[in-house]
Amino acid sequence: MARVGNPFAAMYTASKAALEQLTRAWAAEYGHRGVRVNTVSPGATLTPGNEEALAVLEAMTAVTPAGKVVLPDDIAQGVLFVVSDRAALMHGATLDIDGGISATRPG
Fold first, then answer.
1. How would you classify the pairing of strands 94-97 and 39-42?
2. Phi, psi dihedral angles at 38 (to 5 degrees)
3. CB of 92 closer than 8 Å to CB of 23
4. CA 91 to CA 17: how far, in whole Å?
């Protein structure tokens, strides 16, 4: 939501954008100490707390490149990568695990 304009959600989207900027700033500040700071940005995710909204989530994601709702395991797999040694040179990045919604939704 940091890169998508949403009516009636200015504070929510602004808080997400602030997290992206903090990620970059902290990566610059702490990277030389061996600390990697990255952000994982999930999309429309089905969780036990929002199962009643499945139809809404499916409608939101039907037009994305993946065409499906994000599941918690999808996010977990991304997190596993980000914290692994395979991502050792990843600093100050945002990993979008959103099925492509941020790439295709007008901002």
1. parallel
2. -140, 165
3. yes
4. 17
Q: How far apart are CA 1 and CA 37, in angstroms?
A: 20
- The 10 Å Cβ neighbour count of residue 72 is 12
pTM for the whole structure: 0.85
d(CA 4, CA 51): 24
Of the residues 5, 10, 12, 18, only one is catalytic, namely: 12
CATH topology of domain 10-101: Rossmann fold (3.40.50)
12 is catalytic: yes
Confidence of residue 54 (pLDDT cuts 50, 70, 90): very high
Q: Give Dmax over CA atoms of the chain in angstroms.
A: 46
- Please name the residues in contact with 96: beta carbons below 8 A apart, sequence gap of 6 or more: 41, 43, 102, 103
Tokens for 57, please give them.
Answer: 């989530």
Q: What is the pLDDT of residues 8-51, one digit of tens each?
A: 878 888 888 899 999 999 999 999 999 999 999 999 999 999 99
